[in-house]
Write a structure and sequence with these properties.
Order of helices and strands: HEHEHEHHEEHEEHEEHEEHEHHH
Family: Belongs to the NAD(P)-dependent epimerase/dehydratase family.
Strand content: 5-15%
GO molecular function: L-threonine 3-dehydrogenase activity
Bound molecules: nicotinamide-adenine-dinucleotide, threonine
Number of helices: 12
Function: Catalyzes the NAD(+)-dependent oxidation of L-threonine to 2-amino-3-ketobutyrate, mediating L-threonine catabolism.
Pathway: Amino-acid degradation; L-threonine degradation via oxydo-reductase pathway; glycine from L-threonine: step 1/2
Largest sheet: 5 strands, parallel
Domain NAD-dependent epimerase/dehydratase: 1-233
Number of strands: 12
Amino acid sequence: GGLGQLGVGLAEMLRKQYGAENVILSDIKKPPPHVSNSGPFVYADVLDYRHLRELIVNNRVTWLVHYSALLSAVGEANVALARKINITGLHNVLDLALENCLRLFVPSTIGAFGPSSPRDPAPDLCVQRPRTIYGVSKVHGELMGEYLHHKYGLDFRCLRYPGVISVNTPPGGGTTDYAVQIFHDALSTGHHECYLRADTRLPMMHISDCHRATVEFMQTPECQLSLRTYNIAAMSFTPEEVAQEIRKHLPHLTVTYNPDSVRQTIADSWPVRFDDSNARRDWGWAPVFGLEELVSDMLMSIRENKTNEAFPKS
Ligand SMILES: NC(=O)c1ccc[n+]([C@@H]2O[C@H](COP(=O)([O-])OP(=O)(O)OC[C@H]3O[C@@H](n4cnc5c(N)ncnc54)[C@H](O)[C@@H]3O)[C@@H](O)[C@H]2O)c1
Ligand SMILES: C[C@@H](O)[C@H](N)C(=O)O
């Protein structure tokens, strides 16, 4: 799942540290030219066990980062496919990791909590009864990975990401996607129609903090980890709060609210804040971006991309 919102940037960060040739990106989609030119890419379907095994053996893979998934909103629209990719795909990856002594990183999400979980803040360990196929598959992933760690010593690591905000790759159909779209709308039409209520507070994170957390966590010596699944947090905001912050740069931004019942119900069942004190204590997690920095950076990056598109470098 390396060509989604998160994979390309993570590969870029890992390649800087470990060398371009030592990090293989894979997906079932065709990579855009800048990705094909930046390092090895292979086709890999997480549902094709034999082919994945061949890739792992032939390339002497040691670490596997498993990003393929259908996200929350898309998953609700296609439960059978989400079950296949998010659960059968995960089983393939877990089996391959055990068979080939791989170390394994699998992300989880704020969506792994549900209406009966404590919401403000949600701690690492509490009731988890999510009501989406996405959340159910993520809790299953957390439990399977931890089970295989305790039973067979699998080096399984999992971070629960907040909604991730980025410029370069569009998000893949989640409940938090409005928080990316609002920046593009603010700079193009000056108007955003939000599918969540104005007061819907959710945990969010700038993509560079998300990538850095992932790499730092993967590099942490095992003896420092008291858990295998950690919450990580940076900020929590509502649509109205992010709009207010954008108005400091673009005073004419208007926002109308037209809640979509599927995504609003999902958002209302998720934590409004994450308690990430265990990650801070065990492996020194600390975010760099708060709301102010996030908004400045997003607006600057979108403007820069537009300029580069208009005046491409030869
Ligand atoms: N983006 C976020 O806000 C966020 C937040 C929390 C957790 N996560 C988790 O991080 C991971 C990556 O998320 P993302 O935002 O990049 O997702 P995304 O939807 O943008 O990308 C998912 C990728 O998986 C690929 N894929 C789909 N079916 C596949 C298959 N059968 N085999 C191989 N690849 C397949 C898709 O082509 C796509 O490129 C996911 O596990 C997601 O649950 C993301
Ligand atoms: C929160 C996260 O898992 C994803 N962005 C979603 O909304 O589904």
